[in-house]
Amino acid sequence: MANSGGTIENCYALGNESISGPDSSVGGLLGVAGPSSVSATYAIGNVSAQSGYVGGFVGQDATSGGLSNDYWDTTTSGITNLSQGAGNIANDPGITGETTAQLQAGLPAGFDPSIWAENPAINNGLPYLIANPPQ
Length: 135
What we know:
Number of strands: 13
Number of helices: 1
Shape: globular
Strand content: 35-45%
Largest sheet: 4 strands, parallel
Order of helices and strands: EEEEEEEEEEEHEE
Distance between the termini: 21 Å
Helix content: under 10%
Strand order of the largest sheet: 2-6-10-11
Structural class: mainly beta
């Protein structure tokens, strides 16, 4: 996803994000978040950029506290520094880095079990949306 301007909730991103241009904002789920509310989401893809804001979850957070219960995979993203969930704000509240094993070990905090499920045989054991299970 690139930019958010409204509410984003109950979603996930599996793809990789790589930007080669200067002064980019790159994250596992969003390049730029804001102004918006983002909650109960996660990203596992590899994140990289030549320069600019690079975060495991979001490149640039402009939500003024609008992130909650959001996660990125520190094993697969290439972003292992737990303070780098957002590229522009160290230790951005509402964003948590977890390993693949942690994401597979049970639904993350803030994920509603009537919306999300986990099964070792589905989505590599990662959380998935009950109403839209991966094929």
